[in-house]
């Protein structure tokens, strides 16, 4: 059981001992620290925070604790209830709120939950801001409001519909051209809030929807990370239904993966590639993804006359570099699409609407579309950490061992070989080292990953 305190928020498993897991006490502590941080950095007499949650089983408990902790600090709360991460990000600026919290552990299994923290732009806090919140929590440096100064809770349950409308307003989303194609799509929303919002979006675009695991009861029918080994059911159903393609989202709907019309993985790395291909064809410019993302985005961007750059892993890092390079699109290779025309956050709804428009205009099957992109193959692996390991020293040794290659150390160690690469880094959300590799064949990518994992084990004495 685990509690991870990082600059990107607080994430942990439910139950267990205070300070070691995401218990009610820890939840109140870090909600208090966040609210205090907002108050310390504002001259306003009355602050407002937007709150939303995914459908996981612990959601109502964590939600009530967070909402009423903020009320106790004298902060007003706009309560979206069951929602998505990008919906909360959209709502914060629309409501002119001072911040937002999404209660979700994203792709983690059901025993996890988390507090994801936003600023007044609906964007994730940066490292310096996150560090200040951790400091406040360590010192218990918060003062609560008296009885006449408590915050007020305002429920607003229609924000997923508002979010859909905002997506459909985008210049590059063409609902009419999509409607003419009469697409049939299978949706796997892992029994979370995507089971409400994704079918609603598709139906507004004239798409016939076949629902799979769209009951938002929080009982995930499979591991909620949208990887090939977890998605056998939707692949089979796409073939059975003779659907045009399948859509998979994670519990908080910021990651997006597609299944081809043949019931095969489109590849979550290629979600961003396909959407970028469309966006760049209409609005040429630069793109950004993180160091663990496919080279295919670089290839597509350069073919379209733009410049590609890579950031450290983490949405806040991608967004920072996007702003610096004035990128027209960015994201992460885990199926996260960031389109600044609507907001600076990963958004599956935006990705779906842009992909549908592009597919309708191309007059190709999803399999044909995928076959037209540069062919790279990735291997994604991980090694669990033990407390005795000095991970930084281990990664330093890896970097030294490959100093004759192009090595990047802004986030772990990335080694660029002529026709492949390997990226090794500590996870921000789990006690593991992630090992991502990419090459021109799956065998080469897998072999490179196995080599790197063995080297890690030898250096660590595992």
Automatic annotation (TrEMBL):
GO BP field: carbohydrate metabolic process; peptidoglycan biosynthetic process; UDP-N-acetylglucosamine biosynthetic process
Cited InterPro entries: A-D-PHexomutase_a/b/a-I (IPR005844), A-D-PHexomutase_a/b/a-I/II/III (IPR016055), A-D-PHexomutase_a/b/a-II (IPR005845), A-D-PHexomutase_a/b/a-III (IPR005846), A-D-PHexomutase_C (IPR005843), A-D-PHexomutase_C_sf (IPR036900), A-D-PHexomutase_CS (IPR016066), Alpha-D-phosphohexomutase_SF (IPR005841)
GO MF, one annotated term: phosphomannomutase activity
Cofactor(s) listed in the protein's UniProt record: Mg(2+)
Keywords from the named record: Isomerase, Magnesium, Metal-binding, Phosphoprotein
Domain Alpha-D-phosphohexomutase alpha/beta/alpha: 8-140, 171-263, 270-375
Key word Phosphoprotein present: yes
GO CC annotation terms, alphabetical: cytosol
Source superkingdom: Bacteria
Pfam families: PGM_PMM_I, PGM_PMM_II, PGM_PMM_III, PGM_PMM_IV
Domain Alpha-D-phosphohexomutase C-terminal span(s) in chain numbering: 407-454
Keyword Disulfide bond: no
Similarity comment text for this entry: Belongs to the phosphohexose mutase family.
NCBIfam families for the chain: Arch_GlmM
Protein name: Phosphomannomutase
């Amino acid at each position: 059981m685990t509690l991870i305190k990082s600059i990107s928020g607080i994430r942990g498993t439910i139950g267990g001992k205070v300070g070691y897991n995401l218990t009610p006490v820890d939840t109140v502590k870090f909600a208090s620290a966040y609210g205090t941080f907002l108050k310390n950095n504002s001259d306003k007499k009355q602050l407002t925070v937007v709150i939303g949650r995914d459908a996981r089983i612990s959601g109502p408990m964590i939600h009530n604790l967070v909402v009423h902790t903020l009320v106790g600090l004298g902060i007003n709360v706009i309560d979206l209830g069951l929602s998505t991460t990008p919906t909360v990000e959209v709502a914060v600026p629309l409501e002119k709120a001072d911040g937002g919290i999404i209660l979700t552990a994203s792709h983690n299994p059901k025993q996890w939950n988390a507090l994801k923290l936003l600023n007044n732009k609906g964007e994730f806090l940066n490292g310096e801001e996150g560090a200040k919140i951790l400091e406040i929590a360590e010192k218990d440096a918060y003062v609560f409001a008296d009885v006449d100064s408590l915050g007020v809770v305002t429920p607003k349950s229609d924000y997923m519909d508002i979010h859909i409308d905002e997506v459909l307003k985008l210049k590059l989303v063409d609902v009419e051209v999509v409607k003419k194609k009469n697409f049939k799509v299978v949706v796997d929303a892992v029994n979370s809030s995507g089971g409400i919002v994704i079918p609603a979006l598709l139906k507004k675009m004239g798409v016939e929807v076949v629902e799979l695991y769209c009951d938002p009861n929080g009982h995930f029918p499979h591991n909620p990370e949208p990887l090939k080994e977890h998605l056998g059911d939707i692949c089979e159903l796409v073939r059975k239904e003779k659907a045009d393609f399948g859509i998979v989202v994670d519990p908080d709907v910021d990651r997006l993966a597609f299944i081809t019309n043949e019931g095969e993985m489109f590849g979550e790395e290629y979600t961003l590639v396909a959407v970028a291909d469309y966006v760049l064809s209409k609005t040429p410019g630069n793109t950004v993804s993180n160091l663990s993302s496919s080279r295919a985005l670089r290839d597509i961007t350069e073919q379209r006359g733009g410049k590609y750059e890579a950031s450290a892993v983490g949405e806040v890092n991608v967004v920072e570099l996007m702003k610096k390079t004035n990128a027209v699109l960015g994201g992460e290779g885990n199926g996260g699409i960031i389109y600044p025309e609507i907001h600076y956050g990963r958004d599956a709804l935006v990705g779906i609407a842009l992909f549908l428009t592009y597919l309708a205009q191309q007059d190709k099957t999803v399999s044909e579309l995928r076959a037209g992109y540069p062919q790279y193959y990735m291997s994604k692996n991980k090694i669990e950490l033990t407390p005795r390991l000095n991970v930084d020293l281990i990664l330093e040794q890896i970097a030294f061992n490959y100093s004759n290659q192009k090595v990047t150390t802004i986030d772990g160690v990335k080694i660029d070989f002529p026709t492949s690469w390997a990226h090794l880094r500590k996870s921000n959300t789990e006690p593991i080292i992630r090992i991502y590799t990419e090459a021109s064949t799956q065998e080469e990518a897998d072999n490179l990953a196995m080599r790197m994992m063995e080297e890690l084990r030898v250096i660590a004495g595992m």
